[in-house]
Amino acid sequence: MECSNPDGPLCGTEPACETNPPNIISCKEEKARISRTSLFLWHARQDDPSALRCLLQQDPSLISAHGYDGRTPLHICAFYSCLAAASFLLDHGAPVNAQDRWGNSPLADAQSKGHKEMETLLKEFGGQSLGNHGLGFRNAAVAPPLPQTCDWEVDPLELDFSKGRVIGKGSFGEIWKATWRGTPVAVKKILPSLSDDSSTIKDFKHEVQLLVKLRHPNVVQFLGAVSSKPLMLMTEFLGAGDLHSYLKDNGSLPLAIAIKFAKDIARGMIYLHNGTNCIIHRDLKPRNLLLLENDHVKVADFGLSKIFRIKSRQAYILTGETGSYRYMAPEVFCHKSYDTKVDVFSFAMILYEMLEGEPPLSELAPYEAAKSMAKRGLRPKLRAKTYPPQMKELIIKCWSSNKEDRPSFKEILMTLESMQRGGDR
Ligand SMILES: Nc1ncnc2c1ncn2[C@@H]1O[C@H](COP(=O)(O)OP(=O)(O)OP(=O)(O)O)[C@@H](O)[C@H]1O
């Protein structure tokens, strides 16, 4: 399937029925809606993301479409292992745990058919094995319900913004420095427009439940969340700024510091990628790497992007905040199925930026940079003279077009350690 522009123009719009009386319009519209739904389900079965994209652009509500027995396009993809279409649907916010009239979720369908790759993909998006396969399949395990009480809910009245300030703006909302029970914290206020349906809030709660359990010295610590509107996420506050600003102020880093930072990032990523809930960051970039006063780095802003990403795409474009594109792996740009190796690709771009002192392909706009990398295999030129051959090799491996050729973060850490030992001698 040819890679298409993820924010491409509308493929076609339906003519407005301005002269028809209202009852004829609604009848016509209803018929059109039903036929669009059938078409959407059919293209899911054909594993055809381009056709799905065209229909979705005409009618965004199709993302929650289902047939009369409650089976969604994602159920169909899961059942027939249509990976490209499933990946597209998930990227565009399709409800991953929708249950059909037998109570089965897409993951239960994939499991019943033994589609391993599909299972992995659905789980990455929070898929749960729900239902009992009343169609005659073997029973699937039902995920335990979330506990009714939670220890992460923050009372918004306890958040004091009076002496706070906005410290950053992302596509999901503003980041504030605030005080919570006397402690400085960073609070991300999610744009109200991104949390206007109950399923988003449910997904949000589920995700926070996972994130709040994470603990690692190189991962920004989640402290809690407000699950009423506006949704808010509270993390520890890191006062030394982010890597983007640091590089802007200081230019390229000496090799030893770049290796030190890179090791911290690799350690944080090993933790995220290898826990019981494998977390793929998908938006690793210098702005999401926060510095500590003692020159250590922590990985921030992971986990929730998949919930708000599609909804925020519009805001993303409107605010011109397209910085993430520059670090984006080709398979994400092309809406293909992907795994933890997308973060390795982004890491290569960050390594490059730390050593060269300028963003990768800075001569191109972020979107153009991502497109050239994905479609033409273009890569930034390694110009700095200070690269030891091992570092050059590492960067080139990490930004391989073929994700299988990219090393894991465990391997990356080992290479960085051996480089550091070489430098010490
Ligand atoms: N815990 C924190 N402590 C201190 N500063 C933070 C913290 N979290 C975020 N920031 C600051 O806020 C900025 C914006 O963060 P945010 O994660 O919302 O935006 P982004 O990653 O640039 O955008 P997007 O979420 O759209 O990818 C960061 O680059 C950083 O400077």
TrEMBL record:
It comes from the Eukaryota. Transmembrane segments: none annotated. InterPro entries: Ankyrin_rpt, Ankyrin_rpt-contain_sf, Kinase-like_dom_sf, Prot_kinase_dom, Protein_kinase_ATP_BS, Ser-Thr/Tyr_kinase_cat_dom, Ser/Thr_kinase_AS, Ser/Thr_Kinases-Pseudokinases. CDD domains: STKc_MAP3K-like. Signal peptide: none annotated. ATP binds at K189. SUPFAM superfamilies: Ankyrin repeat, Protein kinase-like (PK-like). Residues 161-419 form the Protein kinase domain. One of its GO terms (molecular function) is ATP binding. ANK repeats lie at residues 69-101. Keywords: ANK repeat, ATP-binding, Kinase, Nucleotide-binding, Serine/threonine-protein kinase, Transferase. Belongs to the protein kinase superfamily. TKL Ser/Thr protein kinase family. This is Protein kinase domain-containing protein.
